[in-house]
Amino acid sequence: MSGSQWELPPELCCRPMAFVALTGLDVTYNAVHRAIWDAFCANRRADRVPISFKVLAGDHEYPKCRTKRTSYEWYIPKGILKTGWMNKHLNLVPALVVLFYELDWDDPQWKEKQSECATKVEIVRTSLQGRNTKVAVVLIQKKTPLPPGEDLVASERASSLCNACDLSGKSLFVLPHTDHLVGYIIRLENAFYEHAQTYYYTEIRRVKSHKEFLNKTTHQLLFVRHQFKIAFFSELKQDTQNALKYYRTAYSLVHELRAHETNMLEIKTMAGFINYKICRLCFQHNTPLDAIAQFRKHIDLCKKKIGSADLAFEHTAWMSKQFQSFGELFDEAIKLGLTAIQTQNPGFYYQQAACYSQDRKLTAQQLCQVPPAGAVCPIPDPLDTPTGGLDFYGQRAWRQGHQSIDPPDPEKERTGILALQIKERDVPHSELIIALLSNAVAQFKKYKCPRMKSHLMVQMGEEYYHAKDYTKALKLLDYVMCDYRTERWWALLTAILSTALRCSYLMANVKDYMTYCMELLGRASTLKEEQKSRIEKNLLKVLKNEVPDAEPDCEPSGSSAAAALWKDRMALSGSNEFSIEVQDYVPFIQCKARFLAPSFHVDQPIQLQVFLRADCPHPISFNKLSVSLSNQCYNQWCVVEASGQDTMLLTPGETSCFSFNFVAKTQDVGKKIEMTGIELMLGSGRWVFLSWRGAGGDAASAHEALQASRSARPRGPGAGARPEGAWDALTIQHSTMIISRVPKISVQLSHQPPALNNEMYCITLSIQSQEEGVAREVRLTAGLKPGQDANLSQATHVTLDRGQVCDASDPALLPDIPLGDLNPGHKVEQRVYVRCVSTGPRVFLFHVAYSINTSVDGQEIDCNCHKDETIAIETVEPFEVSSKFVSTKLEPLDRVVVDIPFVLMTDLLSSSPWPLLLHSSSLQLVTMATCTPHPLSQLEQVVLQTGECASECFCLQCPSGAEANGTVATGQYVISWRRHKCPSVVPHYENSLPSFGRVRETLPVRYHIENRTALVQQVEMAVEPSDAFMFSGLKQVRLHILPGAEQQMLYNYYPLMAGYQSLPQLNISLPRCPATDTHTLRRFLPQRIFVKPQGRELDDASIAAA
Amino acid sequence: MAVCIAVIAKENYPLYIRSVPTQNELKFHYTVHTSLDVVEEKISAAGKAMADQRELYLGLLYPTEDYKVYGYVTNSKVKFVIVVDSSNTSLRDNEIRSMFRKLHNSFTDVMCNPFYNPGDPVQSKVFEGMVSGMMVQVS
Q1: Optimal mutation site among A342, A443, A453, A553, interface B, most CBs of chain B within 10 A
Q2: pTM of the model
Q3: Could you say which of A218, A700, A972, A973 would form a disulfide bridge with A924 (CB–CB 3.0 to 4.6 Å)?
């Protein structure tokens, strides 16, 4: 027997098909015969009848039929099923023998040929002596037969041939060798199939007929055998429903057998066979649930039937095989269209098979220790049989056919068991287990069970470890480790890591060994303190280039081999530097780094902190810590190295902080500096670089930070009492922005909005330097802020030249106007003129840039600073012009008469908030003539206040030459105007107001009113109440201010609400100067103020920063 | 009675696992971990159907040769897993349900503790005691 004695025999696993033997065909030398044979065997698809054909010689010897037993009275069966039986009926004993013979009906030598044919039939009959096998004859003819009944010769000769051969007419066939060969063949094989069916039917009847001779005491085995045979014949007959029925009976009968230690294996083997058949048929009938139920029943019945205790491994091997073959059946059914689900798929059966194989390995290890390791197989080998195989399935080679409870010869039994144990010892258990596990992995992958898959892969890895294939073991374990790490199942991770550590130790793989050590020492490991301590000692040894102690669970032989490997490794110089990426693990040294601020001004030193913390039980020293940044020129500033002999020490459970400072380069302004990696150097004799990508952190730190942030515990500076929380709450700031230096200049804009359409609007810009050094190359960019409506840039023109009205050629934005250098404390003024030719709001940008030298940390740097101011200016129409025609009596006219004078009246309605000075106006006539020889402008030097209207009349006359009843053009009315500066009327107001207030804190506000006119001004002031403030001070007052004098008004406002609040409205009116309306004055007064809520002291800094 | 009781966080890491001390603890860890495959599948299948009226009790997750594994998912996606011995046929579905209900109530009490930070391992003694009561008593 081969090592795979548990494999199911192939004749059991195949689909039984009727066996038909073809004789008289010479397929080697005869082309016609070859074609016929090919037509039989080629293209056997599902639509063809299930027959297995075989070409046999005419004088082929069929298996001899034993003489039929007439009585079972004294017969004691030797076993359940003979090993050769199924094969015999599948491949050796045909249901039908077909004799092919070339003979045409009109053959000239008919007589001779007929008798030759009869002889051949006779030969076949003789060799089938005692069998019920049918015989049929096929005549191969060259001519196409005539329709039946027409060929009288044919029918006559056919019947004579039938007589000669002793055949029924149904068993004689004609095969014309013409074009339609395949069609004829298909008809032939259908006829063969019917004959085969009849044969198997009679066989079933024959077996059934034995039943009456049996008795229950001595022939129990035969009951099973007969049921099995009937079922098998039914299958051959393609009657699967009945086959299933008989198999089920056989199955229940097999469990009724008296079981004892000597025949347990036989019973289980047969039960397994029958169960296999039942499940197979159930799947074939598309009743998978029946198959599963049968299998469960089978397992439950057989689980406890262990048999001989000395051969317990046989039971587990058998169980494993049961699960495996069921899994295969299931898988096959799925390939044929069955759908499986996540919780019921072949994977579970493969997994269970693997599980039993593992049990088998364990029991084998226990039981096979009994024979001394050097024991050789007893001679003669009790497993050898004279025939080289067994007569009955599931029997012992040394006592075949023995059916009583006690073994016939205890000595033979002992050596037999010993031989089996020795054989078991050589079975490659791990290979079997791994194969089953990988089958299961493939299934679970298909049915969306990633965790089950990982679990099985761990088992595979462990099995490879037991099989001493450490490379494969590590590969598998490494693959799944990260799944367990990301899911945070630390107990499982620790178990896997421990196996991996042993593998890497036995292989003397230094880098992996250290990596696993580091993770096992880390906080994710659930190992006990003393184990951690042992591992750390080993790690320290490796770091010193020494041989580590053996892992405790390794077998001694492996350990000594490993120690030798380690010595070799140690002697090897040159490969003593290792770089280990620890980001994706949970290493025993944690690292977090941060820039102290998300951004730094270029004139500040950049500060960066690295925190380290060791989780191992003993302190660990390191030699060097370095941070690499995205701009490598800064790396030199971020290194700390142990000087000389003393190294830096990390104490377990304490956080060590390392700070670095450096000055950014001015060309990096506006760029981001990122930490690209942190490297920590450990070791003496062997150097290990632990490297973190980015700014530290590892596979577990993100979650810890999240938990820390969720925690209700107080954090921040006060949490020092809980170092755990403080460490977890440390956030990583991996990048910082370098921003330009804060400019120390003030830019003030003064102008008088709104702008009037078409006017040259003047904006005065004053730049005052508060720098300590000279601000060099001050440049101003002024104009329309880019990014607004595209039409605005066409309708806005900016110039520095007030001498002339700017036109379309002037740009909307004047870039880089040089203003020279600015000394400390000095001030420069620049006027910019803007002409807006359309109304609407615009945003103007004033960008002042300069460069200055400054020193940071003793380093001189040249930085560029800039300050932006934007203002929004509304442009409005200054006035509206309308005109109308009236008669000389001022009656409205809608048409004018030739030669009769009339009056053109123009009205100019000011809508400007500013007084307008009309410089001149003129009428440029086209066809009309004026009645006054030199018309003077009546509006010259008129000042127009808001809402006022200026009118002008021109007396005109239409010349006679003009076309009657036509329209005539009058002419153009040109007005030249400008804003009227009222230099002396408006008093000057100033107020001192803090930049913000705070709820329920007094807010003193002082208004300064200065009379800059030459007259004594009477001023009326009143304060309107506001919801947001209470206030004290003069509510309504009337006072006089002397020329050049100043009056101060002090109010104490008391804010009640936070946010942007409107101040109590101060109304000022000048009764002597009604032109200055209160709205104009209000422009100078602050309208709103930001009121802060009443906060705690702590918040001050943060709001100020905001 | 149970041989293993586990509480699994929303993110599928264990908050609490307790198994009978007589057997290999690691094996139960693996059993609970692999059962999450089925839990996830069931949640996603139920999530599509009716998010609100989902039954918390998931029933038998999968049978192994030796154990039966039952699952339960709270509305906040915290999972409870109870493993019972396959040979223990006296336990009915109803009893498993009531075990889960007890477990859920007790876990709710743990969550109500202001000093408990959700997501941290459960260390409550009351919870521990309640679980002990549901475990197979090892004499």
Answers
A1: A342
A2: 0.74
A3: A972
